[in-house]
Input
Amino acid sequence: MPANLTLETLKAAFEAGEIDTVLVVAPDMQGRLMGKRFHAGFFLDSGHTETHCCNYLLALDMEMNTVPGYKSAGWSQGYGDYVMKPDLATLRRLPWLPGTAMVMCDLLDHHTHEEITISPRAILKKQVNRARAMGFEPMMATELEFYLFENSYENLRDDGFGNLRPISAYNEDYHIFQTSKEEPVMRKLRNDLYAAGIPVENTKGEADSGQGEVNYRYSDAMDTADNHTIIKQAVKEIAWSMGKSVTFMAKYQTDKAGSAAHVHQSLWTLDGKPAFFDKDGDHSMSQTMKHFIAGQLEAAEEMTVFFAPYVNSYKRFCVGLFAPTKIVWSGDNRTAGFRVCGEGTKAVRVECRIPGSDVNPYLACAALLAAGLDGIERKLELEPEMKGDLYAAAGVREIPKNLRDAAAKLKSSAILRRALGDDVIDHYHHAAQWEIAETDRVVTDFELKRLLERA
Ligand code: ADP
Output
């Protein structure tokens, strides 16, 4: 489903008084939308050609701290500008924001107009182009889980985040009655996203109190990463507009299930045939699909920083809560890191269950493609399938237990350095190191409660 505005239809909507604001945005390292709100008149006159932003936007942490040590930007270089180049194919209405449209931008060098290689869209574009050069169109979908709370963000902040009230009192996985109670938020979400040109399939309750999920139709990898990013923004904005809040933290409470962003993937030939499907193959998998999964299994530990970018993200990987702990593949088995689904149909695909809902989708999809395509190029043999309860599997690769281990794997990854480039790996390794250092220096409630009296 394409985005639903062109410059001509935007002009008509502006002249009819329907649209007065255009959000000109680009995803940052954390996968957030960053940019400016343009008056639609100015955007139509000249803003649609290009605008600028400070290059610190790809060198910040979640708190907008200017992180030292990046090669791309810093005080010593005076924090110059990037060009924000609107990708007009993404121009669309945002029905949940009155009178507003938005467009995604690519980030370009201010002087040369070359793409900024460390920017999330450029990183993904490079892998998509590589796939196309090999004769494949990568098709992907992410499934976004999150928690919805009765409280507003403002009330949560005032209460020191101590009084979180999930929208439901019980596990609401597939529940219709409980999710009927959430329809003011979720119905608007489905309909407004659909009207924004995002092909929502469904929303559903998930496996803990207050947890929900949005599914939308798979598409080419860039469209999917854009859709994921816009959906996340819409969930927050719609919930906020109704005095509620949501979180995409991978694990917001010790005893609650974590939230995931599973990534479904398939390759298609450039003339539209399913390159993963072989009706006579094991689980209907073609040789290409087997090599692709083998590449992802081999590089899974090295990619994990792109699936689990924060110290918190690793707390999701626990036994018995539908998050994977093992780097193995299995047919239709939700305890495996890589699950083969759609057996017997042209929709046969591999679902990587490792990414959490705090993921940057451009980076996760790019890393998955990098590893999968490497598996195809090297014709890697797929290891035997594992079956049963894979939480209990012994003698197999494990998902890294923490960001420190994952960052070390990323740093030494020959596969990802070759595919994504040294500058990308060094940049995102530095981001991980900063997250570790920031978390290491903070005294937590856990430490206080455990140690204050008894240490
Ligand atoms: P699950 O049982 O894991 O919830 P669903 O049937 O709900 O799986 O599908 C999950 C996602 O997979 C959806 O977003 C759907 O669009 C996507 N999907 C379906 N076919 C393909 C495909 N061939 N390639 C990639 N994604 C696909």
